[in-house]
Each structure stands twice: as C-alpha cells, then as structure tokens.
Amino acid sequence: MMYIIDTANLDQIRKCVEFYPIAGVTTNPTIISRENTDFVKLIKDIRDIIGPDLMLHVQVTASKADDIVKEALLLKEAVGGNFYVKIPISQEGLKATSILHNMGMKVTETAIFTQQQALIAALAGADFVAPYVNRLDNIVSDGVQVVSEIVDMFKAHDIKTKVLAASFKTVEQIHKIAMSGCHSVTINPELFETLTYHPMTQYAIDDFNADWESVYGRKSIAQIFEGK
Ligand code: G3P
Questions:
Q1: Which of 15, 16, 198, 209 has the highest CB neighbour number within 10 Å of its CB?
Q2: What tens digit of pLDDT does each residue of 162-221 get?
Q3: Nearest CA to ligand 1 atom 3
Q4: Cβ(164)–Cβ(108) under 8 Å?
Q5: Alpha helices by DSSP H, 51-132
Q6: How many whole angstroms separate alpha carbon 143 and alpha carbon 166?
Q7: Which helix (H) or strand (E) holds 210?
C-alpha cells in the first residue's frame, strides 16, 4: 500500500520526504489556498522537493471538459515528472478524463462518494479514484465499507484503476482501509506522525538507553568501536 501526503506546505513536505516512505503528494484547491501564495511557484517548488519520480497530484478548478483538458496540460507542463491531474467527478469531468486518458495523461478522479461513481470513473480512464472516507462517515455512511466495495469491485472486474482513499481523521480509519486491500491512502502530515508514534515505543527506547548507560555510560557504539 502506498502512503501519500495531502498537503501543499513546503516545510511539511520536506520533512515527510526526509523521514517517511511516501509515494507522493496530493493537493486540492483548499489545501493550495491554505498556503496563500503564488500558485505556479508553489507547485513547482513541491516538484523540486519531491523530485521527478514521486507522484504529484494537482487538481483542476475548471468545470467544462475543454477547460479541464487545457488546465491539465498547463499543469503537466509546469510541474512535469510523475504527474496526475485531479478531476472532481462530473459529466464534464468524465468527458475530460476520457480525452486526457487517450492523450496519455494520468488522471485521478476525485470527490468520489459512491461505488458506482468509482466504477464509471475507472471505465472513463482514471488511473486512481479518490473516495472520501471521513466525509462519508460524517454523513452517516460508512467510508471504509464504500472503499472496500470499490476495491472488491475493481478486482472482480479486473479493472486496473487504483483506489486512493482520502479524507481521514483517525488512525482507525487508515488501518481499516489498509486491511481492505486498498492500494493507497492520502493523509495529512499530522495524522502521518500519529501513525508512527506510540508511547509504549518511547518507553521501550528510554529503557534501552537507561540500561546501556548503566554499564557503558554515555559512550555510543560508534565511540566504542573507534576506541574513544
Ligand atoms: O483531497 C481530498 C481530501 O483532502 C479531503 O480531505 O479532510 O478535507 O475531508 P478532508
């Protein structure tokens, strides 16, 4: 399963690229707006930080198919590398998805709330579909179940489109999505940190350090080898 980070904050992206095995970065107009800065420079800076191989997903704001296609090509030209254009699902969005797919562009169909939206987006040529887990939970639906059924449906029909589950608020949601066989999740950096931290782990590390120091003092293993 791939972990992707859902942010346009350059400091957070730098940190995640340095420390975590992330497969890329996703953004949307809300996330971009939070940075309140030059849009084109921002997405180019993200590409510079993550390099050409990690995925960068950037969303269009146009609503007509021709305009979506135009924006997609401009975005691809600006950021290059492993680029996915995010298109919210709609009639025009599906039309644009087919056009872009036939042009060889990679598409992530986003704002998915139902299994059938996901299936139709896949058939239109989307490489990823992005269902919104927490927003589904918030409307008393079941985000994990919707994602699981999309994953199963794609398997049953031998559809190569991958599922990129998005919109998370809890570690439990992420874990259940991972157990469903979902291909990828995009999560904000704060939530990513909560996935790796556990107080019992810190307790164990503190114990190791105390036991080591009781015999070897503050000498590290490297210092012992170097005879210092
Ligand atoms: O990219 C979509 C995702 O960021 C939505 O997340 O937290 O706004 O529901 P959220």
A1: 16
A2: 999 999 999 999 999 999 999 999 999 999 999 999 999 999 999 999 999 999 999 999
A3: 167
A4: yes
A5: 65-79, 91-102, 115-124
A6: 10
A7: helix 199-216
Q: How far apart are CA 190 and CA 180, in angstroms?
A: 23
- Give which of 59, 55, 110, 103 is closest to 85, Cα–Cα: 59
pLDDT given for residue 228 in this prediction: 80
pTM for the model? 0.95
**Does 89 have pLDDT greater than 90?**
yes
- The pLDDT value given to residue 72: 98
Phi then psi dihedrals of residue 112, to 5 deg? -85, 130
Residues with CB under 6 A from ligand 1: 6, 26, 28, 132, 134-135, 166-167
Would you state the structure tokens that stand for residue 204, as one six-digit string?
């164990």
**Which letter does DSSP use for residue 184 in this model?**
E
